[in-house]
Write a sequence for this structure.
């Protein structure tokens, strides 16, 4: 999918929620996609562009402006991000989130909240930028809520207010 602009979106869903796609898989590529609007989920894997990017897929040269929110938390980590909720074994590069990202509830599973990516597992994150506010309960980062399991993180630029509720270790990056 390339060269797409979505304006005035208002997307609501339960899990795997994104303005462009709930799940991007099977070595797919998303390039030059720009979203403006609101994305709200009530469970997990919620992102401005895609809820989940997995299985060798790539997102590049894309942006999100607006609001991304988890209105409640299910029985799993929320994985909430301005661009993507959860990234598994994939590449995210040269993209930016100008979205305010908020997990509005507190609780054990209201965590992994990032300005660009909520949770990354075994992925490559390069040249990402985030400027919106980020609010979550645990594992909150200006760019990435949690980078785990051999995730490569380079050339990232967080900027903007971010805060965590709770007691976990949180930072501007991840």
């Amino acid at each position: 999918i390339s060269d797409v602009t979505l304006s005035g979106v208002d997307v609501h869903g339960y899990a795997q929620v994104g303005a462009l796609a709930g799940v991007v898989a099977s070595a797919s590529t998303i390039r030059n996609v720009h979203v403006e609007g609101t994305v709200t989920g009530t469970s997990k894997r919620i992102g401005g562009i895609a809820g989940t990017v997995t299985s060798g897929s790539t997102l590049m040269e894309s942006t999100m402006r607006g609001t991304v929110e988890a209105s409640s938390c299910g029985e799993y980590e929320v994985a909430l991000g301005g661009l993507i909720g959860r990234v598994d074994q994939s590449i995210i590069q040269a993209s930016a989130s100008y979205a305010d990202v908020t997990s509005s509830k507190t609780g054990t599973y209201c965590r992994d909240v990032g300005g660009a990516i909520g949770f990354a597992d075994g992925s490559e994150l390069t040249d990402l930028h985030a400027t919106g506010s980020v609010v979550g309960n645990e594992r909150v980062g200006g760019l990435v809520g949690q980078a785990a399991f051999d995730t490569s993180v380079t050339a990232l630029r967080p900027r903007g207010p971010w805060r965590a509720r709770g007691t976990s270790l949180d930072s501007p990056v991840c």
